[in-house]
């Protein structure tokens, strides 16, 4: 028995060696030391893919998972009108909107929000597919008029349904400027697709009334959704300039890709508070997150670069990597530093540009 003691000791010493090496490699970023265990590398990376590279079965799996979230009861929403888990995500965005836009935590907060939505689709609705993104440059640069409205993402059978129909929705009259509702954008109800019959309870704006999914496509926003628009952002040399160039108004005088995408879809999606009531919110923001990740990867020091004001009202601080990202009932509070590297725990996802070759196993499972 005694002879096992030195054996165990030498085994422990042996095991310590790679742990130390890991700490040296990962432990000092931006002059700060943190626990290596917090930044475990991922066992696998979930792959996020462009919507149109999914086959019809994969598209249906995603839509069905969103509809599942729209059928599960809310857990602990910050706005009592929220009835479903889908509403709960929308309600939390509305609740916290003033604190997470036009500030340094804008991109990190939305990165974690999307991750929690993806996790809910998987753990609560059994979704096993990709978290899709919408690369709107493929539509904005199409050689046709009405390039946004011609996108396959609006397909009524395989996509998210199309434009709102004029005259089918009447905005309530009792909203004030705080709701930031742009009436011309609320064209009408989406009559087709998988969400035509879903009753939204949060929004529009700060009103929380039962209503249909409202859209109002705006083709002129396509000019903010081109590769040139992306290049204008990704050429910025500091995070502070980059996040301003991505987010758009009111930080910039004209629209940019973030607000441009919101305005291109219009209706609920155009609203500062209630935009996640349109399921396309998550595909648009995944593309914004992908562009941020592209910018982060271009220069090593950008992986943990963060800056910007913490608030739009006093007291205002500079956002640091310790800044807490509040998620309420959607998930645990994490610090910005925890989500900067999407290839590390707890994020563990990546963005795929090209379509994958046919996965015959998946094909045979579904057929
Ligand atoms: Cu937002």
From TrEMBL:
Keywords: Copper, Metal-binding, Signal. InterPro entries: Di-copper_centre_dom_sf, Tyrosinase/Hemocyanin, Tyrosinase_Cu-bd. Residues 278-289 form the Tyrosinase copper-binding domain. GO terms for molecular function: metal ion binding; oxidoreductase activity. Gene3D superfamilies: Di-copper center containing domain from catechol oxidase (1.10.1280.10). Residues 1-21 form the signal peptide. The keyword Transport does not apply. PANTHER family: TYROSINASE FAMILY MEMBER, TYROSINASE-LIKE PROTEIN TYR-1-RELATED. This is Tyrosinase copper-binding domain-containing protein. It comes from Gymnopilus junonius (Spectacular rustgill mushroom). The lineage of its organism: Eukaryota, Fungi, Dikarya, Basidiomycota, Agaricomycotina.
């Amino acid at each position: 028995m005694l002879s096992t003691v030195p054996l165990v000791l030498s085994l422990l010493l042996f095991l310590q060696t790679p742990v130390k090496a890991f700490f040296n490699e990962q432990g000092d970023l931006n002059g700060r030391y943190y626990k290596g265990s917090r930044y475990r590398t991922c066992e696998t990376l979930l792959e996020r893919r462009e919507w149109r590279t999914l086959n019809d079965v994969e598209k249906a799996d995603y839509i069905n998972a969103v509809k599942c979230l729209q059928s599960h009861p809310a857990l602990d929403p910050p706005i009592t009108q929220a009835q479903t888990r889908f509403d709960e995500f929308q309600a939390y965005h509305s609740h916290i909107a003033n604190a997470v836009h036009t500030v340094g935590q804008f991109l990190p907060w939305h990165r974690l929000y999307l991750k929690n939505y993806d996790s809910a689709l998987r753990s609560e609705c059994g979704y096993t597919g990709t978290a899709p993104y919408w690369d709107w440059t493929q539509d904005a640069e199409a050689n046709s008029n009405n390039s946004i409205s011609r996108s396959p993402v609006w397909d009524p059978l395989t996509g998210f349904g199309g434009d709102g129909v004029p005259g089918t929705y009447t905005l309530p009259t009792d909203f004030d400027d705080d709701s930031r509702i742009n009436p011309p954008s609320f064209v009408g109800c989406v009559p087709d697709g998988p969400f035509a019959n879903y009753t939204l309870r949060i929004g529009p704006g700060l009103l929380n009334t039962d209503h249909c999914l409202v859209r109002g496509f705006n083709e002129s926003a396509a000019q903010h959704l081109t590769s040139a628009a992306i290049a204008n952002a990704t050429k910025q040399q500091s995070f502070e300039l980059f996040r301003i160039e991505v987010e758009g108004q009111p930080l910039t005088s004209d629209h940019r890709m973030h607000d441009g995408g919101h305005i291109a879809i219009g209706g609920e999606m155009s609203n500062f508070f209630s935009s996640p009531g349109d399921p396309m919110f998550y595909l648009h923001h995944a593309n914004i997150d992908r562009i941020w990740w592209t910018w982060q990867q271009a220069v090593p020091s950008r992986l943990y670069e963060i800056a910007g004001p913490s608030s739009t009202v006093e007291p205002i601080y500079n956002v640091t990597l310790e800044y807490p990202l509040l998620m309420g009932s959607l998930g645990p509070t994490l610090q910005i530093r925890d989500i900067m590297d999407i290839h590390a725990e707890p994020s563990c996802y990546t963005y795929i540009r090209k379509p994958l070759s046919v996965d015959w196993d998946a094909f045979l499972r579904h057929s």
